[in-house]
Design goal:
This protein is an all-alpha fold and 85 residues long. The protein has one domain. The chain contains 3 helices and no strands. α1 packs antiparallel against α2 and α2 packs across α3. It is elongated and about 50 Å long. It starts with 12 loop residues before the first helix and ends with a helix. The structure holds fe (ii) ion. Fe (ii) ion binds next to α1 and α2.
């Protein structure tokens, strides 16, 4: 999975699921960047609208994953509260 450096088989399931969620979060943000670049690059208004729709769905996917991480990683949730954003 992802870039995890420890022995995957020795990790508890909770750690594996958090890794899956965090890696998926990274991939959603990569997709948002890719769509955003393509939106800026295209001169076709129809394609731009489709790409914007797709990018916005990726933002929703990222939000769902971050909510999962906050729910299952109390330190992450605490860090978010500390940042006061
Ligand atoms: Fe997605």
């Amino acid at each position: 999975m992802g870039t995890y450096t420890e022995k995957w088989g020795e990790l508890p399931e909770s750690a594996k699921d958090l890794e899956r969620a965090r890696q998926s979060f990274i991939e959603e943000f990569e997709a948002i960047n890719w769509y955003s670049q393509r939106i800026e690059a295209t001169t076709d208004a129809e394609l731009k609208k489709i790409l914007e729709h797709n990018r916005n769905e990726e933002k929703e996917h990222a939000a769902l994953l971050f909510e999962y991480v906050k729910k299952h990683d109390s330190e992450q949730a605490g860090a978010l509260k500390k940042s006061d954003l």
